[in-house]
Automatic annotation (TrEMBL):
Pfam families: HupF_HypC. This is HupF/HypC family protein. Gene3D superfamilies: 2.30.30.140. InterPro entries: Hydrogenase_HupF/HypC. It comes from the Bacteria. Belongs to the HupF/HypC family. It comes from Rugosimonospora acidiphila.
Length: 79
């Protein structure tokens, strides 16, 4: 049985790297915080350019690597 057997809920422990988010099919992509902005926002470098995203859910600092999902930083990546 796989994580996506029809009629069964997906196994939350199964890897979803190929399919992305079970809800919206988006992925979490890495980015680097360049500047913190007002109202829980930040300017980040994504590798494809810069964008403004929300960092309201994490404690991010300038220089931190974060994972972005749907315009929201959902984790700070530590080495």
């Amino acid at each position: 049985m796989t994580a996506t057997t029809p009629g069964r809920r997906p196994d939350p422990a199964a890897p979803h790297a190929e399919t992305g988010c079970l809800t919206c099919a988006d992925r979490a992509d890495p980015a680097t915080v360049l500047r913190l902005l007002p109202d829980g926002m930040a300017l980040v470098e994504t590798g494809a350019g810069t964008e403004v995203v929300s960092v309201a859910l994490v404690r991010a600092s300038v220089g931190d690597a974060v994972l972005l999902h749907a315009g929201e930083a959902i984790a700070v990546v530590t080495a």
